[in-house]
Amino acid sequence: MKITIIGTGYVGLVTGTCFAEMGNKVYCVDNDLEKIANLKENIIPIYEPNLETLVKSNQNKGDLIFTTNLKDALDNSNIIFIAVGTPASDDGSVNLDYVYNVALEIAENITNDSLIVIKSTVPVGTAFKVKEIIESNLDEDIKIDIASNPEFLKEGVAINDCMHPDRVIIGAENEMVFDTLKELYSSFIVNNDRFILMDVRSAEMSKYVANALLATKISFMNEIANICEKTGANVKNVRLGIGSDKRIGYDFIYAGCGYGGSCFPKDVKGLINTAMDNGYVPKILSYVDEVNENQKLVLVNKIIDRFGEDLSGLTFSIWGLSFKPQTDDVRCAPSLKIASEIIKRGGKIKAYDPKAIDNFKLNFDLDNITYKKSKYDVLDDSDALILITEWKEFRALDLDELSKRLNQKIIFDGRNIYSPKIRELGFELYQIGC
Prior knowledge:
N-(1-d-carboxylethyl)-l-norvaline Dehydrogenase, domain 2; Rossmann fold; 14 strands; about 15% strand
């Protein structure tokens, strides 16, 4: 098939590359001249395992084309994916300016009957608004269909998620659209039972509900961790006790220092806003968001309990800046809040992350923070280690190296990955809920 993907952000770039890998002709369109020029040279704007390799190979085959020329792309395709950003506004509502601007550009440049597929995460009713904008601005008698095809890509394993989806949700108005998209995804799916077909509005809602429910599990378990600390229970044991129940499962019930990223915070707020706009007050969702923001301060509070409110003269080493392992994304990352609070109290920070340092610098321009190129160099002359992101390279500790480099043998473990047995070797270990 011949496909146009509008937007070369995380979703658009991964999706377009995977479609090309399966033999489709894919035009990835963006109005960012520098980004497109870099992509043509196989310079990838995000870190995602195996993405660079696939981009390069499919460009070489001619199946993946990066361009700023929307008209040329539309002239050569009849399936158009909208995959532009939908950032949160200051009030928590979803900013749809990019989506609606793309709809106008499609109307101005389209020359063939086409299927418009909304891949961006958008509130209920957006797809029909996009269809209305396009149809009301078409100069010719061109027929368009509209569909919602939400993405469920997890950063760090996005290529695998795209190539081997656990489900493909398609929201459409007629059988022909269902059949077209099922054919497109047939290369990824062997069993038809992974296709979930529904109306457009339900498909739009499904994306928000999925992320909101996962965020709810995280915030719920973080609250349980805080209760465990008050009562003397161990949240890691509690997780084992409840996760064995197949109705609950083990995923997303790890206690920690809060979730971040571009999806969960934005989508929880977006669903809250949608509910409020429709006259409903979503109490659970509102509290999920509040608990998560408070959870980002848990490690800070532990640091204050140990060292006092005034952190002047103290240096803290941070391991992990990205919001999760296997990505360079620091949007809404707990590290941003933790670092700010430490510096606000007079402390200094040395930080290391395998991939996210450059992005962290773009989002964090305060003084009193330096960056190192290795996990052990960052420890020199520091008073404590703070583990925020559980990259694999942080899991096995060289305790002799820590003892030599740290001024004090103190570890704040924000993901509960270290064994309490290290306390027997003279380390102070502070964890969450245990």
